[in-house]
Structure formats: C-alpha cells, structure tokens
Amino acid sequence: MANQKVALLEEEKVETINQSGKDPKDGAASEKDDDLAVAAEPPASFVRAHAKWIIVVVVLLVAIGAYAVWSYYAVRESTDDAQVDGHINPISARVSGTVIKVLHDDNDFVQAGTLLVDLDPKDYQVAVERAKADLANAQANSTAASVGVPYMTTTSSNQLVAADANVKAADKEVIAAQARVQEAQANYTKVSTDLKRMEQLVAKDEVSRQQYDSAVANASSSRAALDAAIAAVAGAESRAAQARAQAEGAHTVPEQIKITQARAGAASADVQKNQAILAQAGLNLDYTKILAPVTGIISKRSVEPGQVVQAGQPLFSIVDLDDIWITANFKETQLKSMKPGQRVKIHVDAYNRDYSGTVESMGGATGSRFSLLPPENATGNYVKVVQRVPVRIRIDKGEDPEHQLRPGMSAVPEVIVK
What we know:
The protein is an alpha+beta fold. It has two domains: 78-120 and 294-416, CATH 2.40.50.100; 124-279, Helix Hairpins, CATH 1.10.287. It contains six helices and 13 strands. Strands 1, 2, 4, 7, 9, 10, 11, 12 and 13 form a nine-stranded antiparallel sheet that branches. The protein has a four-stranded antiparallel sheet with strand order 6-5-3-8, with no helix packed on it. Strand 10 (343-348) and strand 11 (353-362) form a beta hairpin. Helix 4 (122-203) packs antiparallel against helix 5 (209-250) and helix 4 runs antiparallel to helix 6 (253-286). It is elongated.
C-alpha cells in the first residue's frame, strides 16, 4: 500500500510539471515559502478544538449587551410626542376709553405690576367727583333722619302719656257729673213732693201764700239745677270722647316711630349705596391704568395710541416663564408603572440639552376625548387605536434660570418608572 501511494504522488508531480512547464528545482524556493506560511498559520485542528469556546464567548458578550440594553429601557418610558407648556395670560381692558400711551411692545420682558397701557382718565375723574357729591348729600339726609328718630320717640311718648291721663280725667269728670245729676234729681224729687203737699195745704188755707210761693220757687230752682247737672254730664261725656279720640291717635305713636326709623334706615342705605358707587367710580379710574398681572414676555400686541378700546377687548398676551412644565402624550400602554413623583430626564431639541423634572399629574382623560370631534365607537365600524394620555411633568427649580424654555418647544421626556 505504501508503494502505491508513493507511485501515485510521483505521477501527480509529473503531471504538475508537464502542465506548468517548470522544473521541480526551480520551484523549490516557492515551496519553502509556502511551507513557512503554513507553519505560521494556526493549525486547523487548534481552531476546531477551541471553536465552541469562541462561540460561547461571543454569545455571552452579545447576551450581556442585550441584557444591559433591556435593563436600561425596561425601567424607562419615553415619547417624542411632548412639548414645553405654560400659561399664556390674556390682558384685556376692564373699562372703555381712549388709549393715551402704550409703553411696551412684543417680546418685551415685564415684571408683574408694570404699567402697560394708559387710558384717558378724565371721564372717570368726573364720575368720581359726582359720586363724592352724591355721597355727601346722602350723608346729610341720613344725619337728619337719624336725629329725628329720638326726638320723635320722646315727643310721641309724652303725648301718649298725656292722652291717657286726659282720658282718665275725663272719665272721672263724667262720673262726678253723673253724681251731681243724682243729687240734683234727689233734691228736685224732694222739692216736688213738698210743692204738692203745699198745694193741698194752700187749698185748705192751712199755710200762707208766701210759703207756697217759696215752695214753687224751690221746685223751679231744683228743676233748673237738675237740668244743669244733666247738661254737665253730656259735656263731660263729650270731653271724655274727645280725650279717647286723642288717646287713640296717640297710640299710633309706635307706628309713627317705626316709620321714622324706616326713613332713617332708608337714608343710611342710601349712604351705603353712594359709598359703593364712589368705590366703583374709583375702581374704574384705577382701571384706566392697565398693569401686567404676571412676570413674563409680551406677545400678540393689538393696541395702538389713540385707539378707542372697549371693556373686555384683548390688548396683549403675557407668557409666564416662571411657571413652565412639559406636556407629554404617552401611549396608554406606557402608563402601567407610571405615577406622580417619578423622576424624568427631559431632552429639549431647541438647545440639545437635558433637564431634570418630576411627573406631576396624569390627565383626566385621553386626548381624543377633548378633541373637536371625539370618537363615537358605538356607531359604524370600530378600529382599535392606541390612545394617548397627557402627562404633566414639572421641571425642577433652577433648571432654567435664564428662562430659555418657551411654550411649544419640542421635548423628549424619559420617565424612570422603576
């Protein structure tokens, strides 16, 4: 077998020489070079022996890298559907008037309380002076009405006491007159009886004519006294009725006092009304100076000097840069582990800078529910769409000291949910 192999090798060499046309001696140097190159390369048996370990190392490195990437993103939720947000405060005129001065323009930075627009105050100054005069008049009327109440109370009370006393006196006078009538009636009855007896005696001439005339005179006098007593009773009763009428009139004093007190109260209310009118006039005068309610940047100026503005007409907008946040619209599938208080890294595209923040609150509904035409899934064909929920992210204090952030800028928040 060995001889056959050697013979085969010999034949192959001869065929190679015939095909190449070269002498074996000429190729001796190149063969030596090939042998050196083969000696420098690792033997195939070594590669085959360690191939599985090489594969294990490569797989292990890939697994470690994949785990590191998964570990990083597994505890973070991010979205590019986010923007810087803030309050845009509209500035409107509270009273109508002619614009005298406009002191600031678009993009000016103003502090809270800064004068922005000055309206013509003359009409409102006149209204203040008129309100002051009306108030002084109302105060004078109120003073007079208030003074009249105790005077009316005292006078009317005295009248009531006097009227009651007069009624009692008149009643006593009637009683006395009636007693005098009874006395006169008794005297008249006695005298009349004596007169009848005298008539009988005179007819028999048992008494003198003079005695009879005296008895007639006594009877006439008694009758006159009785009539006078009866007339006195009528006069006393008339005076008693008059006293009662006066007393009844005096008993209306409490109602009259109440009327006087009501008039005083109305005068006092009129004073308060005029005080309110004066206060309103003063406020309207103050409203002729339009001040900035917040600190921020002026935008959307729409007023010029000489322009007549109406109450409620918008003049400016002020962007409050001290109260800035991020509104991020996360998918509903990203909210499983998200909650207020979690830390956030915010990347703002405009400055290519990261800011720190905190999840402040979650939206009360998805954004589609607040759209102009909210979806009606109960009608027509239904296609399930992943909804987005607005999440407010508060930027930490001191992160934007130069107030570079502006509402509307694009942002990419990354919430650490675990």
